[in-house]
Structures are given as structure tokens and as C-alpha cells.
Write a structure and sequence with these properties.
Bound molecules: (2S,3S)-3-hydroxy-2-methylbutanoyl-COA
Oligomer: single chain
Strand content: 5-15%
Structural class: alpha/beta
Helix content: 40-55%
Distance between the termini: 43 Å
Strand order of the largest sheet: 12-11-10-13-14-15-16-17
Radius of gyration: 28 Å
């Protein structure tokens, strides 16, 4: 036995413990160790049953995801879990799986190869493989429907959300909940001498082909809407539906074929890149290891508008008491009403109990002055996006907030150093750029100023985890990472409309490709006036590649600010539902004629190329300038903050998938046709040779 899997006896029960921190993944040696222990028990007459349990914080959280890259590249042999799990299932003595923490993917499949499963009430079980662009590849799509029924299996495998131990018990996945010590409870269960019961033989819950197909069609429609463009959910449904016409072994073979198709596809590569990327961005090169995050026990927020209110909710949701300040009672009441409404909606949707909502509201203390700010460990300023106003607030805060507290600004574009310059403690000033709605969006762009101390950076990155967000560190450039790149992307979207494409065609090309929303519709959501002001500020600061004149000026001049004014690039009804506006089409053609812009038609791929390549090129410039630390940081910003499809991996990963040489070649051609805006970044030209972004 290797250290990964150890055994011990409890009477006539053999206890098999998996010890592969941090999450007991099925790394090479683990499944083999479990099978060897079960095999040994089979031939040991003094043993009547086996209990398998995980050491540490969880049962098996899945196959070792790091192995997949090695399998695809041929460095490692294909997954061999099926033979091993079949051997466990065929054991002549009962095998009881004891579950705690998260039994996910190959972990749940291993558990289902056992004859019984017991779990602590806090355990969760699931098949999240689709979140990695994969499907269960070790019998999950064959054993789960046998235990929980076809509908539950389809829901769990197509959407990948884990279920609680109680739900698992109710659906038949788990046989008993263990209050108290799990191992004691599992051994007690084994000592009741339950008969061997192979999951493969449990066919009562399977459906006939017609019923299975109609369920599959239902879930397919839902997947095509909610998981647009993703192949794995549909493959998982196909594999589960096959239980209606294939016997177990044929079902396993069919599943393995579908699994392999997913594994060797681009979507799983992209989603695995995002999985590890979301963990890598938390590691800041150059930040001294001994620098520890400071404790954040109390918070304060200035401004109870849409952003301020959402940020206050983030703190309350994490159990951190927060003071929320506004300048007038009216504004404060408005802010609180919106917070209350958000919580009521969460309760209505069953995402929160009324009691929990009440407790969170209790944690938010509304004030009209800086009362309570002296006790705050961190203050987040979220007032209107205007430099003078923010500087005014920061000089106030510098006077009232205690030494050693962090002063953060939620600015989405402005200069952190400029804001910090009005305080006597620029080393305690940092940018914490939340995304709207702040209580929903997972991304937190953390922006370091030139004086920001390592401890403040470490604390802000840790804050992201506390608030259940993904923190990405950015340097202090206009628009940081996300908005800086969005500028050229949106620039090209507007140019394409000026040159003859329709507003709908541009947005449709990107949403069909996978973006959550088209760039022009995003403009209307964020506000054409906001984008116009940001562009004026960028022009004033001499930021390169920002167009002096644009059709957007026409929209702004006519008060077409987007959703908030009922018209922008689109017309909006009172439900804010967009519809194409022939008036915009007329105005833009008029504008183009005035500007003597040649007109032409565009294909979807031309629209994709011009918009996405502009995004990628600006990303390369950010890496050159050191504003973004790594290409993966840019990918995680775009996937979590700008609706970039995770199954395409983010802009920089996508560029590598396309081929950096091809991207560079096309960009040079656009440069020849359109000029300096399209000058390929030096890093792109350099990286094109190796095909990988080089630093
Ligand atoms: N393989 C390898 N490493 C893993 C891993 C895994 N399955 N899960 C986590 N890690 C690493 C992770 O990268 C991090 O490393 C550390 O563990 C802690 O994770 C055949 C095909 C279990 C809920 O999709 O969802 O089985 O950054 O920071 O927030 O059908 O990790 O410290 O170096 O996320 O407490 C299916 C993936 C695989 C589950 C814990 N399983 N993991 O969350 O910690 S495919 C999954 C998670 C499969 C079979 C198929 C979460 C977690 P580092 P963490 P956490």
C-alpha cells in the first residue's frame, strides 16, 4: 500500500483511508490503492466488509484534473478508472463508501461503485464534469440514473451542480445520513451485514427509450438556452439517455467514447485553463511569502448607489458588519430599499431563508455622517465616477479613518495614485473595482497604486476570497485590465456600424459566438453617457487608440443614453426589452456620409475578427506594460467580468487556440488597411513564433 491509500481493521471491517491532500483527487496510485485493498479483503476470511473513507477535509473530489493535459498530450495513458471501479463493484463482500466534504466527479463515481454510501449531513455530491467541458468518464452516466433516476441524473450531469446529503438520501444516491462521527457510523452500518448490492444491477429506475428521449429533449432545450454553445452537457444527456437501450457494459463503452470526444475537444482545454486560472490569479509573483493578509472584521462603504449598495451586501453576505454612508436621507432610503428588494428576491427564489436575509440586513448600518468609520478595518468608496469628488471623499476619510485601515476605491477607470495623493497614507490606498451588480458578479479587479504596500495588496486579494469573488491584480493604468481592453473592442464594434454593418448584426455575431451580450447592448446597459465621459477623459489623458470622433457622439448629443433613457443603440420598452431602432440606422448612415466613410457589408467572421483581435492586441499591450501579470489574469477578468465564454478560455487563451501566428498575420493586414490602431503589439509578434504567449 502506498501512503496515498492505507488500511486498518475495526473488528472484521477493513477501513481503507485515502490520503491525497488537498482534495483526495484520484491521482495515479489512488484508485489502484483502493482496488488493491478491496482485493485483499476479498481473500481475507477474517474480513466481512470494507469501509472506504477520505482523510482530511473531503472524500474524493474527482479525477486528478492535472492528468487530463498529460493524457491529451500522450504523456499519460488514457483514464483506466472503469476497470478499477468494476472490480470494486464486483467485490464479494459489501463495500461501504463513507462520504464527507465534496464527493465530486470521479469521487461520486467511485462512491457509486461501492454497494452502499453513508454521508454526514454537511456532505455534498455531484458530477461537475461539464464545468470542465467533460462528462462523467467512469460510469457516472450509467450508475447515477440507476440510483437516483434518469431525471435527477440528467439534471446533475448536464448542469454540474452538487446536491446536499439530504437530497442525495431522498433521491437514493446515499443510503444513510450519519449524525456524529462518520467512520463510527460507517463501521456500524457495515456491522449490520448488508448484502452485496451492485449498482449496475439496479435497473428499476431506468426508463424506456421514448420516456428517456422526451426527458432528454427537455433538458437539451434548457441546456441550449442556459449553456449556449457548450458540447459537454448535450453529450452527458446522450450518454444517460442511452441507459434506456444499452445494457450496462455497452453503456460504459458509449460513455467512454463521448468522454474521449470531450477530452480531446477545445472546450475542455479552455475550461480546465479557467479552472486552474481562477486559482493561479490569487498567487502574486514577487509578493513576499511572509506578508500576511490583515484581519478585516468591520467595513464601511461610502455611497449607497447601485455599486455601493451591492458592495455593502457583499460584506453582509460574508458576515462582516458594514456601515453604509450617504449624503442625504433620500439617497440612503433609496439605497436601502434596493438592498432590501434584492434580499426579498433571493428569499422568493429560495436562495436564502427569510431569517438569513434578516440577519444580513442587520449587518448593514446606514449613516449620514462618518459615524462608525473610525472602527472600520477597510473603507470602500463607491461614489460617482468623478476624480474631484473621489479626491474630496478620500481627504475626508484620511481625517476620520483609523491608522492601519485600508482605504479602497471602487473607481472603474481613474488614477489610483491621483486619488491617494490627497491622503497622508498612500501606502494604505488600493483600488477594489467591483462589477455591476456587485453582489452577483464574481470578479474583483484589485488595483495597486505605486505606493500601495504588499500587506494591503495581500489583504485585498484575500478579501476577494472572503467575499466569494475571484480577485485579479492589475497595475494602475487607465481602465485597468478590463475596461482598458474593452475600449478598442467597443471602438471596432462602433466602426463596423459606421462602415455599414447594422447594430444588431454586430451584437449578434458576438452573442452567437458565445459572448453573454454584444458590445453595443453592453454600451446601452452601462450607459452611452458613461462611455462618452470615459472616452472624453481618455482623450484628455492622451490615452492611445481612443477615437476622437465617433457616431457615439451623435447618440450622446441626442440624449440616447441607453436603457436608462429608453433609447441608445437600441429602443427599450418599459421592461427594458431591446428592439432595433430604424432611427439609429438612419442617423448612422447620415453620419457616415458626412464623415465620408466608405460603406460595405460584413460577414460574421469579419466582425468577430475585428472586435476580438482588437481585444487581444490590447491585452498583449497590457502584458508588455506589466499592467496584467500573466495572460491568464486577462482571461479570468474577461470570463468573470465581461461575459466572455469560459468554454473559449478567455481572450488570450482563445488567441492561442486560433494560433498566434495567424492572429499576428491578420492584424498586420488590418494594420496595412486601417493604420496605427491595428499596429500589432510587439509581444504578439514575438509570441507568434512559439505560438504561446511569452513574457
Ligand atoms: N484535481 C486536481 N487538483 C484539484 C482538484 C482535482 N479534481 N480539485 C481541486 N484541486 C486543487 C486546486 O487546484 C487547488 O490547488 C487545491 O486543490 C484546492 O482547491 C473521471 C472526468 C473540491 C470544491 O470538478 O470544485 O472526475 O491552487 O482551491 O475552494 O468522471 O476544488 O492550491 O494548487 O478549489 O475548497 C471532477 C474540482 C473532476 C471538482 C474544493 N471534479 N474541484 O474547493 O479549494 S473531472 C471537479 C473543486 C472527473 C471523472 C471526471 C474544488 C473543491 P492549488 P480549491 P476549495
Amino acid at each position: 500500500m502506498s501512503d496515498l491509500v492505507t488500511t486498518a481493521r475495526q473488528g472484521t471491517v477493513l477501513v481503507v483511508t485515502i490520503n491525497n491532500p488537498p482534495v483526495n483527487a484520484l491521482s495515479p496510485g489512488v484508485p489502484e490503492g483502493i482496488a488493491a485493498a478491496v482485493r485483499a479483503a476479498a481473500s481475507d476470511d477474517s474480513v466481512h466488509a470494507v469501509v472506504v473513507i477520505g482523510a482530511g477535509r473531503t472524500f474524493i473530489a474527482g479525477a486528478d484534473i492535472r492528468e487530463f493535459g498529460r493524457i491529451v498530450s500522450g504523456e499519460a495513458p488514457p483514464l483506466n478508472l472503469n476497470e478499477i471501479l468494476t472490480e470494486i463493484e464486483n467485490a464479494p463482500k459489501p463495500v461501504i463508501m463513507a462520504l464527507h466534504g465534496t464527493a465530486l466527479g470521479g469521487g461520486l463515481e467511485t462512491a457509486m461503485s461501492g454497494h452502499y454510501r453513508v454521508a454526514v449531513p454537511s456532505a455534498k455530491v455531484g458530477q461537475p464534469e461539464v464545468k470542465l467541458g467533460l462528462i462523467p468518464g467512469a460510469g457516472g452516466t450509467q450508475r447515477l440514473p440507476r440510483l437516483a433516476g434518469v431525471e435527477t441524473a440528467m439534471r446533475m450531469c448536464a448542469f454540474g451542480e452538487p446536491v446536499s446529503a439530504a437530497e442525495a438520501l431522498a433521491s437514493g444516491i446515499v443510503d444513510r445520513l450519519i449524525e456524529g462521527d462518520l467512520l463510527t457510523g460507517a463501521v456500524a452500518f457495515a456491522n449490520e451485514h448488508p448484502p452485496v448490492r451492485r449498482t449496475r444491477d439496479l435497473t428499476a429506475k431506468l426508463l424506456d427509450p421514448a420516456a428517456a428521449e422526451s426527458l432528454r429533449t427537455l433538458f437539451q432545450d434548457s441546456c441550449r438556452t442556459k449553456l449556449k454553445g457548450q458540447a459537454a452537457p448535450l453529450a452527458a444527456l446522450e450518454s444517460i439517455a442511452a441507459t434506456a437501450r444499452l445494457d450496462f457494459d455497452a453503456g460504459i463503452t458509449n460513455e467512454a467514447r463521448l468522454f474521449s470526444e470531450c477530452l480531446f475537444g477545445t472546450q475542455s482545454k479552455a475550461l480546465i485553463h479557467v479552472f486552474f486560472g481562477e486559482r493561479a490569479v490569487g498567487r502574486i509573483p514577487g509578493l513576499p511569502k511572509e506578508v500576511q493578509p490583515l484581519p478585516l472584521r468591520r467595513a464601511a462603504v461610502v455611497g449607497a448607489g447601485t455599486m455601493g449598495g451591492g458592495i455593502a451586501m457583499c460584506f453582509a453576505n460574508a458576515g462582516v458588519p458594514v456601515v453604509l454612508k450617504e449624503t442625504t436621507q433620500g439617497a440612503l432610503d433609496l439605497g436601502l430599499a434596493s438592498i432590501r428588494r434584492n434580499y426579498e428576491n433571493s428569499v422568493k427564489r429560495g436562495r436564502l431563508t427569510a431569517e438569513a436575509a434578516g440577519q444580513r440586513l442587520e449587518l448593514i448600518k446606514p449613516v449620514l455622517h462618518y459615524d462608525g468609520f473610525e472602527e472600520a478595518d477597510i473603507v470602500v468608496e463607491a461614489v460617482f465616477e468623478e476624480l474631484a469628488l473621489k479626491k474630496h471623499v478620500f481627504s475626508d476619510l484620511d481625517a476620520v479613518v483609523r491608522e492601519g485601515a485600508i482605504l479602497a476605491t471602487n473607481t472603474s477607470t481613474l488614477d489610483i495614485d491621483e486619488i491617494a495623493s490627497v491622503t497622508n497614507r498612500p501606502e494604505w490606498v488600493i483600488g477594489t473595482h467591483f462589477f455591476s451588480p456587485a453582489n452577483v458578479m464574481r470578479l474583483l479587479e484589485v488595483v495597486r497604486g505605486k505606493a500601495t504596500s504588499p500587506a494591503v495588496i495581500a489583504t485585498a486579494m484575500e478579501l476577494a476570497k472572503t467575499l466569494k469573488k475571484v480577485g485579479v491584480l492589475s497595475g494602475n493604468a487607465f481602465g485597468f485590465i478590463g475596461n482598458r481592453m474593452f475600449g478598442p473592442y467597443r471602438h471596432e464594434a462602433i466602426r463596423l456600424v459606421e462602415e455599414g454593418a447594422s447594430v444588431e448584426q454586430v451584437d449578434r455575431a458576438l452573442t452567437d459566438w458565445g459572448m453573454a451580450m454584444g458590445p453595443l447592448a453592453v454600451g446601452d446597459l452601462a450607459g452611452v453617457d458613461v462611455a462618452w465621459r470615459v472616452r472624453q477623459e481618455a482623450i484628455r489623458l492622451g490615452i492611445p487608440h481612443i477615437e476622437a470622433a465617433s457616431f457615439e457622439d451623435e447618440l450622446f448629443a441626442r440624449g440616447r443614453y441607453g436603457q436608462k433613457s429608453g433609447a441608445g443603440w437600441y429602443l427599450y420598452d418599459d421592461q427594458r426589452k431591446p428592439s432595433p431602432d430604424p432611427e439609429v440606422e438612419r442617423l448612422v448612415r447620415e453620419y457616415a456620409a458626412c464623415q465620408a466613410i466608405p460603406q460595405r457589408s460584413f460577414t460574421h467572421s469579419e466582425i468577430l475578427e475585428r472586435t476580438l483581435f482588437a481585444l487581444i492586441n490590447e491585452g498583449a499591450r497590457l502584458l508588455e506594460e506589466g499592467i496584467a501579470l500573466r495572460p491568464v489574469d486577462i482571461d479570468i477578468v474577461y470570463v468573470n467580468g465581461y461575459g466572455f465564454p469560459a468554454w473559449r478560455g478567455g481572450p488570450m487563451h482563445y488567441a492561442e487556440t486560433l494560433g498566434l501566428q495567424r492572429v499576428a498575420d491578420r492584424m498586420r493586414a488590418l494594420y496595412d488597411e486601417f493604420g496605427p490602431f491595428w499596429k500589432p503589439a510587439a509581444l504578439l509578434e514575438h509570441s507568434a513564433r512559439s505560438g504561446r504567449w511569452s513574457q
